[in-house]
Amino acid sequence: MDFSDKHIRPNYGILTVLMVGAFISFLNNTLLNVALPSIMTELKVDPSTVQWLTTGFMLVNGILIPTTAFLIEKFTVRRLFLVAMGLFTIGTILSGTAHVFSILLAGRMIQASGSAIMMPLLMNVMLVSFPVEKRGTAMGVFGLILMFAPAIGPTLSGWIIEHYDWRMLFHFITPIAAVVFILGFIMLKDKKEKVSLRLDFFSLVLSSIGFGGLLYGFSSAGNMGWGSPYVYGTIIIGILSLTWFIIRQSKLDIPMLNFGVYRYPMFALASAITMVVNMAMFSGFLLLPIYAQTILRISPMDTGLMLLPGAILNAIMSPINGRLFDKFGGRILATVGLAITTVTTYFFSQLTFETTYTHLVILHAVRMFGMSMVFMPVSTNGLNQLPRNLYPHGTAVNNTLNQVSAAIGTGFLITLMSLKEESSIANLLKNIQGQPTEAQMGQIQLQGMLDGINFTFFVSTFLIFLALILAFFIKRAKQEEDITGKNKTNPGIKPTLAKS
């Protein structure tokens, strides 16, 4: 039975269970950042060690997400969801009971293995559960989860850290994860015909080294510097392995990850836009907390609250933008959203020591309002052009490249900020006669950091403007038929997930 049939009504109860599972796994991505200083103190580890709690999580995601296209084609939604939620729950329990860093890191990476499966799985279910003309609204609700969960993470984490031990970050998620697992076990009843697919092991090795190398290299550049052999060595190895991986996929009858999705122009355009915006978006998430806490001396809790109105506005607008997408298409939303994001990012490049808290809250909220019009409408329009057999591959490619572009953007922006900060401090020191006092040196360092932050936002403005130009080429996508003749499997889910 075809899910594009207008008489099929998706089972919203099951979709809700899947979305709650996705919500807590996405929330977990940013929940730990504020707690890192507390973990360093209690478990007696240095910054370069504790950062593996975030780097390791990202690496596991980058390695596993490319395999999700194969997993979705091979196994039922029920089995994948229960495995993903089970791994996430086990990892959460292990992390919450850890008294040494190695156990905490192991639990965190087990969490990541479940989280990596969850997002592509839910996106694929959304694509096959709704017809094209209603897909924007559905994906808008999905976007609410995607953007809102990570955005409230720092605020929620700050409140918990102020009142409880850092382990409570895991303890409060554990019962929710357990309940979602039980509900999934009871409610999910989909079946799938036996599929004779085998994973190409060498492709898995190349993918892991390729994406893992890129993610590790770029995410380490901010701490180690671009001159470190660990940074440029892993990036070079990653690029070579990834090139080999892509060439190999083009020669396989049933590739692990089908890069043929880029033959569809709207998908390729959507991928380019989201990657560029993803790189620039991290300027806000990364630099604003540094500016607020270091230069304006705002507490971590108040910094989280500063970002919260933007997150709430983004969440509210996501379903609304989904409905607008169904009615008007993606180009209008994307161009308006990117224009707003370009202007607000430029204003963020004009920060001073006197910038008020209210100004930051409003500017960030307006920026997030613009962002809300970009990601889901652009991605959904691109995915809409793909034939159904390529949905798992399209979602896997999108999610993998989002991870990679975020790592590249973070490494690139931190480097720009550091270089500008160093040159600014050097110029300021030239204007001082003799040895600067401790107070003067402190003020010079703050001014250098401010110059670095402003310069990085300025560069981000140009990146987003580039995405704005690309957005004018968006056209409303029509689903293509599968003309490859190689589709021997049904990537979707059986009609037991729908109500007639």
From TrEMBL:
SUPFAM superfamilies: MFS general substrate transporter
Regions crossing the membrane: 12-32, 52-73, 80-106, 112-132, 139-161, 167-187, 199-218, 230-247, 267-292, 298-316, 328-348, 360-379, 400-419, 455-474
Molecular function, one GO term: transmembrane transporter activity
One annotated Gene Ontology cellular component of this protein: plasma membrane
Residues annotated as signal peptide: none
Main subcellular location: membrane
Membrane topology annotation: Multi-pass membrane protein
Superkingdom per UniProt: Bacteria
A Pfam family recorded for this sequence: MFS_1
Classification via Gene3D superfamilies: MFS general substrate transporter like domains, Multidrug resistance protein D
Keyword Nucleotide-binding belongs to the record: no
Keywords: Cell membrane, Membrane, Transmembrane, Transmembrane helix, Transport
Keyword Cell membrane: yes
Subcellular locations according to the entry: Cell membrane
InterPro entries: EmrB-like (IPR004638), MFS (IPR011701), MFS_dom (IPR020846), MFS_trans_sf (IPR036259)
Domain Major facilitator superfamily (MFS) profile stretches: 14-479
Record-linked PROSITE patterns: MFS
Entry's family note: Belongs to the major facilitator superfamily. EmrB family.
Name the UniProt record assigns to this protein: DHA2 family efflux MFS transporter permease subunit
Gene source species: Bacillus timonensis
Top-level taxonomy: Bacteria, Bacillati, Bacillota, Bacilli, Bacillales
